[in-house]
Amino acid sequence: MPGTVLLIEDEPNIIEAIRFLLSREGWQVATHADGADAVETVRSVRPDLLILDVMLPGRSGMDILRDLRGDAEWRGLPVLMLTARGQARDRDMAERAGASRFMTKPFSNQDVLSAVRDLLDAGRPG
Amino acid sequence: MSARGPNLFLERETYRRRRLLDAARVLPVLGIALWLVPLLWPATPEEGVPMSVALVYVFGVWAVLILCAFLFGLKVRTRHADDAPAPRPGSGQTR
Amino acid sequence: MDTLSILVSVCLVYVIILFAVAALADQMAAAGKARWLRSPVVYTLSLSIYCTGWTFYGAVGYAARSGLEFVTIYLGPTLVMIGWWWGLRKLVRIGRSQRVTSIADLLASRYGKSNMLAIGVTILAVLAVTPYISLQLQSITLSFSIFAGTDEQAPDNTAFLVAVGLALFAILFGTRNLDANERHYGVVTAVAVEAVVKLIALLAVGIFVVWGLVGGIAPMMERIDASEIGAFEVQGGRWTAITLLSAAALICLPRMFQVMVVENDDERHLRTAAWAFPLYLFLMSLFVVPIAVVGLDLLPVGSNPDLFVVSLPLFAERDGLAMLAFLGGFSSATSMVIVAAMALSIMISNHLIMPLYLTARSGLGVTETGDVRHVVLMARRVSIGAVMALGYVYFDVSGDDAALAAIGLIAFAGIAQILPALVGGLFWRGATRAGALAGLTAGFGLWVYTALLPGIGTAGIIPAAMLADGPLGIGWLRPQALFGVEGLDPIVHSTMWSLSLNTTAFIAVSMLSFPSPLERLQGAQFVNVFDHSVGPRGWTGSPAQAEDLLTMARRILGPDRAQALFHREARRQGVGGNLPEPTPEFLDRLERELSGSIGTATAHAMVVQIVGGETVSVEDLMAVADESAQLVEYSGQLEAKSAELTRTAAQLREANDKLTQISLQKDGFLSQVSHELRTPMTSIRAFSEILRDTRRLSEEDKNRYAGIIHDEAVRLTRLLDDLLDLSVLESGQVSLNMRSATLDGLLDHAVATALAGAAKPIAIDRRRSEEAAQIDTDLDRLSQVFINLIANAQKYCDAPDPWLTIRLRSLGDRLAVDFIDNGAGVPREARALIFEKFARVGGDKAGGAGLGLAICREIMDRLGGEIAYLDGAQGGAFRVLLPAPRAMAAQ
């Protein structure tokens, strides 16, 4: 069953690529480019899956994730984190902050699609 | 041994300098005293001091004072050759 | 008629020559070639403004009336000068170290930077000096009329024209700029020239009289003894009183203070002046008695003895000599009026107008009151005009019948009221502000009552009955016989009462009152000026204020001088950038710099307004309480050491901060590079996979995705280029391609390149006429820096109506180009980092990878220049200091 994916990312070209990939598979894609009010956006869009960049203007993706995990309503939201700084430390931080999955840019389209599929399936009860 | 020579010399220098400053301080006092002398002269027109004498006296004292001040300035110049005051702050800056 | 027109043209030519001399001197001073302008000889000659028209003409008249008494006018100054080691040396040293701008400023500074005291002294000075100025106008007018001879064609408006002309001269050369030290090379040089003219004139007349008319010294002496002033007859009281008054006048007259202390360039000049100035006075008075005697003999009974100097040569039909004598008198009068008006105007503007102006605008805060320099200069010009107008009005009202010397002596007696507070301030640490005010008030009041009003009062200000019987018939209040002391000469009477009560009040109130801490600090500084005593460290400030202080200083000192001062101070403290820590030492130094332009009290008030009040520390109070010179010296050494420690500590702290930051950045560098490389690669990979894997893509989408891949590849290339460029620059392996060109062309190119293709290019404000400078450097590299800065302004300037000001500045022998936009600028906390790699303010991605400014800095380093953020400007501001011009090749 297709669901809604929220993409928080500030590079317009990457947004376009991911939107193209996911919407072709039938998912609804909402996007947002600013870190400062990202949590509010999550609350109003109420996505089934969140794709979150780490380096965002206004607020870091790690902080946003920590906020969400502190909120009972969003504790179970599947979150796929993207980062361009592929260092081991970043992966650790992301896991500790509560990321469901972590991917380093550049990624292969196939990997993104299967990660999204996995996360949505896992998140769906039954 | 060798340290003694310059020491003695320095003390003598300091002593000279002190006396020189004394002299400089005395100079205006001397001037005042000498220029008050005319007030002691008899003031009646009959037995009064002639103007020519008064002129020579007043101007003579004047000349002597100027000469002393000149000599003092000369001495201070040679003695203070190295402790010249720094130029006025800011005067040598870029303009 | 003919003589008169010749006279007028001679005057005009003479004045034009003076203008030329003053202009030339100013020019030379500006070009830094003023060394000989400031020789001890010029200093001594400038002191000769002591000899005014009153002394030039009036001394002879004085001698004709009262014999040798005239000489006391010169004896007092001679005594002060030869006693320079006692008093003047200290006065000049204090004037220099405290950056005093006038006698009023000196007293204000000594007594706790009290503007009230300064206002009092200013008013006293204006009241005492104005009649004196009108006296000079009178002497010029009188000498004109005697030339006009019997036909009485001297135009009525002579005095008016002269007053206007002198005001013009004083405004032109006295208010040209706000020099930190209030020194006016042009005026002083012109005054020195006039000093020579008047000396030569008087000597020429004297020699002509003694050898030409009488036939030698011996016959002259006989003639003197046979004349009506042939016997030496003086009143002891007047002899002493006038010597005292003239001695006081030499120090206290605003114009004398101006040339002797304020314009003093080198303390050592006093050494020469100590004998040379008495010699000048000696020569000026040498022939006075002979001229008076011969004048009384030869000239018709009833001729004005005040004009013998001119009328004797005229009588002997030596018109040339008479003309020279006239020029001498003219010189005496003009130089006095110019310097007096200038000195008074500085006092009026610093102590009356500026405090009022600043209070009126204090709602806006000091930093927003605009460029104060123009206000100060305008205030001075207006003050000069007002002083001259006052002098002229007094001349017009009082008529010209009073004997010249009478007004002069009254002025002397008035100005001498400053003496107790001044001498007390220099030598007695117990002197307080309250004491000084009390003494000045008492002396001033008594002087007005016993000398000023009766002196000018025959014209009707004080009724004759009051003069004879006292106010309301109270006999012991008679202005010229106070408390029943009768039979004294009026001037002796006035001097005795005013000065003695002044001194008594000063000492008594000083002993009864308690000084404020600032007063005590200043007192210690003044009295112990030769011990290099501890500075008044009464300030505490916070770093946030440094920028406000800079803004304020810029408005008072001018941008370049303020910037240089702050930069120097930051260097001294061992802090990078242009904003020194507002340490007490720095605030104190800044205050002194400012007081050179606007006076002590005002400068103090302005700094207080920003820093917010002074606190006097325990050490300061100990320094005050500590009367022992030894201990002061010891703590001075300690302070020098602790200052050094503080400096070292500041340097270490900054080095440490920098190291920490750099290590963090080095750490972050790799992940930064990684991030910057991976981001475009992500798009490239994603879209190339889309193109590869997707079958049914429209032609349009295919093109667009290929376009994205292309753009991102270009971005990647640019980033790699920048990285390579930076690493080449950093490794120092760059080869420079030196060429020369003019700056305007280079800027044209940079502006065009940087703004090419911009949708809404930022407005550029340049002054092409000032950009003609030739530069010799790697033009491509320099241009790269300019392009970067302009492009940055284009990208980051957030003003709704953005513009960028580009200005060429000359800082000493270096040139700098300032780029200042009207946006919000770089936040203070980010300024230290913007020249580091990948340092982007606020994390936005509007621009490149954040390497631009780092490259700019490396380039400027290689070129031998500098690039820095300009603190304290309105918007984002960068200064590119161009490389120093290369030295000419040796061959």
Question: How would you characterize this protein structure?
Answer:
The complex is a heterotrimer of chains A (about 130), B (about 100) and C (about 900). With about 130 residues, chain A is an alpha/beta fold. Chain A is about 45% helix and about 20% strand. Chain A has a single domain, classed as Rossmann fold (3-Layer(aba) Sandwich). Chain A is globular. The model of chain A has no long low-confidence stretch (mean pLDDT about 85). By secondary structure, chain B is an all-alpha fold. The model of chain B is unreliable at about 1-5 and about 80-95 (pLDDT under 50). Helices cover about 65% and strands about 5% of the residues of chain C. In chain C, the strands form two sheets. Chain C has a five-stranded mixed beta sheet with strand order 2-4-5-7-6, with helices on one face. Chain C has a two-stranded antiparallel sheet with strand order 1-3. In chain C, helix 6 (about 105-110) packs antiparallel against helix 7 and helix 7 (about 115-150) packs parallel to helix 20 (about 435-455). The radius of gyration of chain C is 35 Å and the shape is elongated. The interface of A and C includes residues 57 and 110 of A.
Concise synopsis of the structure shown:
The complex is a heterotrimer of chains A (126), B (95) and C (891). Chain B has 95 residues and is mainly α.
